[in-house]
Design goal:
The structure is a homodimer.
Chain A: H1 3-9, H2 12-15, H3 21-48, H4 53-70, E1 77-79, H5 82-92, H6 101-123, H7 135-158, H8 167-176, H9 183-209, H10 214-222, H11 224-239, H12 266-297, H13 304-320, E2 327-329, H14 330-338, H15 345-361, H16 370-382, H17 388-396, H18 398-414, H19 416-436, E3 440-445, E4 452-454, E5 460-462, E6 466-471, H20 477-493, E7 499-503, H21 512-527, E8 531-535, H22 539-546, H23 550-553, E9 558-559, H24 562-572, E10 581-583
Parallel strand pairs in A: 6-7, 7-8, 8-9
Antiparallel strand pairs in A: 1-2, 3-4, 3-6, 5-10
Helix pairs in contact in A: 3-4, 3-11, 3-14, 3-15, 3-16, 4-13, 4-15, 5-12, 6-12, 6-13, 7-8, 7-16, 7-18, 7-19, 9-10, 9-11, 9-16, 12-14, 17-18, 18-19, 19-20, 20-21
Chain lengths: 586, 586
């Protein structure tokens, strides 16, 4: 393997060679800010995934370093994210009990499987698969997941126990146990939530009024959640609120990420294959859209297949260092970018910061209330909730609306896996349905041009002996019979037609089923004394037809352009030419 | 409900009113011939389905009458057919033991479920669903099923026991038990098979040489299988070959079809839903293609949605009269048609003939050897086996070939349900894959015309400041990102371009994901100082875009034709026009 091919798979070899002092200082500052932001977030997302808090820190260390080596985005920050954490919990909670050894091993295995899948997709350049998740389906899924996640955290704010993978289950369970609400916990939870919402909007202006410059104010505001963590922890410690029933994080092991092994049990792998695939695709889509948004701002390019390799390596890293599935997060990547990260080295520095936190700071969070972590999650995910996609899709495209609405309803009502699967299946199904009943237009000549348009939309010239139909779809098995029926019905209605032209400008493919239909149409029209012609066949389609016997059997001709066909066929029927009949637009 | 709407759902009310003596005599003759042909066939197919022989007769009586009332084909003969019988056996054999009461009830339930599904599809006009089964996939499936069916009958010809749902299982099981071969059975089986093959080719010429007219010779030849039945039954009876270990049909109850009830157990229905759906679709496709072929010969029309209702009624009838899933059969329908059937009344007369057989003739088949029935099946299904689809699809379209080959391999290696599902999923998947990476052509003006073609295939005029790309596919979620990448890459490579035209003649739809991509392209090109135009947008697509804000944000214009765009934009860049640069075809 030459250096060139090696560096194709390890972008670090490219940017690493020109790394300088300026890039270093930008990366270092970004790393400090992201580290401060990530500490509470990592703990909270681990809890969302049903894992002990340290798993969130571990999942942020090795994966960040591996992504820095293999990823192409200069600003992406990889680690636990809300939606993937929820999907992890949904996948594992049916297999093992939360808190058990089996649960943690299943999380490692899920990360490992997901890593292998991402790596495989990347090496075989199958990143296009993610395109089958349409933008509206993603938007609907993220919004519904945000609601589901927020709902799952209500119990911690109330200090009660509740469970469920769907919104009705969660709400039902909360209502049932509402009587057990711990008022001290509730007070902490509500204050933390209110504070965090305020931090988002009001903290920066306050800091500015206090005399901070715009950039420092921005940086300090980003650390807002840390204040919530520090203040509530101090409150619990000072007033011994844990004795009042406030749940706290408790003892967290001190030390660097442990070396762990995922399970290789075929049974467990069998159960996790589908969730791992969904997590991989969702994680990839989330990550690549963040990466592309940020790269576009600096005119950099993201290679989707190499991104798959980077994310695959990160997840395999998570599987061997006590983590769980990770991906590129939106909020942290934006913070990283805004704070001036120049290269993926910023990620490596963040990993060092988190490593120090895991080594030294865990005793300090013993009294951190769970309700504060939940408040962090609620505030973070509610920013993902955005119903505008419903309105946009309703006004632009009903099939897209159906796919979005179904994705949301299924995600809320039947859980994340069913939700995203339903969205994908429905959008593919609706697309196939539409292409199975293509728009077919009868066209005529726009006077004074060589251009042909729909006789019902434009004032065009037509000829009573000549029927020209433009099929607005590739011909394939799903619509092959539709065309046959259309042509037969159309000819049955009009007796004067002696030539039919299929204008093929919108036909991008003719598969074997459609070829058989064309052969049947040609044969049947022949029996009726009607000649079949084709016009504006595209190169690749023509190449295909040449491999069959259709062109020899064709009763008419293939014309380069529809205008050629018109000139030839209309002038042949001498009683009509040169006075074609004008049809008014309808 | 008026008579008109009633007759729309009961075609019998239309043809019944003009029924006359001539139609009656045609129908009667056809019925006699089809009845003679159906007796051995019905017994044999019931055996293939794992049911007692009388189930085959019962499945031919009520269903034929119900189809005569509700169906639209004048010649279709409904009853048990080979492929559906095999699918029935495959569906039920995992649920109940052959010969048990549970097995028979499962068969009734399968017919009932299939009937309800067909009826529902018909009432909701969902017949187009069958189009997703492409011609090549059907051809591959029928061929593989034929092989599987023939293989399943070898044991009866050998007089051994063997089992299996796949070719390897069947052949392995046969080889294992080969030592138990009963030589007398084998002799009967081979002779019957040889005789039946000979009947297909040599019997009619012989009858003609013996002085029969062409039509009577044809009719008598059709009854060939009955001779095999009579001769082998007499041989077994005369020489008491059953005492030598030759398996015989044995006692068959005498009487009209019994009234039966399918099961309404949700568990059983749950197990049978998928097989019932596959049987419904396969049966419908087989039936409708026979019906359309025969209708085309007499210029009659088949209404696919009404056919679904007819087949649905037939299957519900089968469920309540001791039958199992039925559909329109190819061989019997052709015989019916050739024998001169004029109306569906021929089917009703056939039902009467079979009713008489069930009442009176069953004692006569006590000594009928099973090996003869197997020979009937083998000879019938081997005529379905046709590998030419492999060659045709290989030379015309590789994706079709892949779908066919996979359908065959999965059907033979993993059974009928997996086979047909694999074929459908693969053909849809390959179609989506192709549309996700559309052909994109850069086009120029064909000199002396207003027509634009690919610069790499035609000698065309282009302008260095103007890039025109024709996207040969509808824009939807699966290829939205592909277009973005293409445009950015293309512009990165060439600095002189100031106008980009997307020629939209092949774009039949722009969904919300693609709209977002177009907005992104427009925005990004705007930042680069490049103007984006569209040309030849189709009416329905334009209607869609008008519902969005895209057209207001568009930096350039929408041109009716590509030529309009060319004239306007090339004349603007005054240093080029009127001398566009000729690019040689490459």
């Amino acid at each position: 393997m030459t250096f060139k091919t090696l560096s194709a798979y390890m972008p670090i070899l490219r940017w690493g060679r020109t790394y300088d002092r300026q890039a270093f200082s930008g990366d270092l500052l970004a790393a400090v800010i992201v580290t401060i932001m990530l500490i509470p977030q990592s703990l909270a997302y681990a809890m969302l995934a049903g894992l002990p808090p340290e798993a969130g820190l571990y999942a942020s260390i090795a994966p960040i370093i591996l992504y820095a080596i293999f990823g192409t985005s200069r600003a992406l920050a990889v680690g636990p994210v809300a939606v993937v954490s929820l999907m992890t919990a949904a996948a594992i909670s049916t297999i093992a009990d939360q808190g058990s050894m089996g649960y943690a091993i299943a999380a490692l295995t899920l990360a490992g499987l997901s890593g292998v899948m991402l790596l495989t997709l990347g090496l075989f350049k199958l990143g296009f698969l993610a395109n089958f998740l349409s933008h509206p389906v993603i938007a609907g899924f993220i919004t519904a997941s945000g609601i589901l996640i927020a709902a799952s955290q209500i119990k911690h704010v109330l200090g009660i126990s509740a469970s469920g993978d769907t919104l009705p289950e969660l709400l039902g369970s909360i209502v049932e146990n509402l009587g057990e609400t711990n008022l001290v916990t509730l007070a902490i939870g509500l204050l933390a939530t209110a504070f965090l919402f305020w931090v988002r909007k009001g903290f920066k202006p306050l800091l500015r009024r206090l005399g901070l410059g715009p950039r420092p104010a921005d940086m300090v505001a980003k650390a807002g959640p840390v204040f919530a963590v520090v203040l509530t922890t101090l409150a619990v410690w000072g007033f011994r609120l844990d004795a009042q029933g406030v749940s706290i994080v408790g003892a967290v092991p001190q030390g660097l990420p442990p070396l762990t092994l995922p399970s290789f049990s075929p049974d467990l792998i069998g159960l996790l294959v589908l969730p791992a695939f969904l997590i991989s695709i969702i994680g990839f889509v989330e990550s690549i859209s963040v990466a592309q948004t940020l790269a576009a701002k600096k005119r950099q390019r993201i290679d989707p297949d190499q991104e798959l390799i980077g994310l695959g390596a990160a997840n395999i890293g998570a599987a061997f260092t006590g983590g769980y599935p990770v991906t590129g997060g939106f909020a942290r990547s934006v913070v990283n970018f805004d704070a001036g990260a120049e290269t993926p080295a910023a990620g490596a520095f963040t990993a060092i910061g988190l490593g120090i936190a895991a080594l030294a700071l865990t005793p300090l969070i013993y009294f951190l209330p769970i309700a504060t972590l939940s408040a962090t999650i609620i505030v973070a995910v509610l920013s993902l909730v955005d119903f505008s996609i419903l309105k946009r899709s309703w006004s632009y495209s009903k099939p897209d609306f159906i796919a979005v609405a179904a994705t949301m309803l299924f995600t809320l009502g039947m859980g994340v896996e069913t939700g995203v699967s339903a969205g994908v299946i429905l959008s593919i199904g609706l697309h196939l349905y539409r292409t199975s009943r293509p728009h077919i237009a009868e066209v005529g000549l726009v006077p004074g041009t060589q251009h042909f348009r729909n006789i019902h939309r434009h004032k065009v010239l037509t000829d009573p002996g000549l029927l020209t139909i433009r099929i607005d779809e590739s011909l394939y098995f799903a619509n092959a019979r539709f065309l046959e029926d259309y042509v037969y019905d159309r000819l049955a209605a009009e007796g004067s037609i002696h030539d039919v032209i299929l204008m093929c400008s919108a036909i991008n493919e003719i598969d074997l089923s459609a070829l058989e239909s064309l052969e049947a149409i040609n044969h049947r029209l022949g029996e009726m004394g009607v000649t079949l012609h084709l016009s504006e066949l595209k190169g690749p389609v023509m190449d295909g037809l040449k491999k069959s016997t259709f062109l020899e059997a064709l009763t008419g001709q293939v014309f380069l352009s529809q205008y050629d066909a018109w000139v030839r066929l209309v002038s042949q029927s001498s009683d009509v030419w040169p006075r074609p009949v004008a049809v008014p637009s309808g």
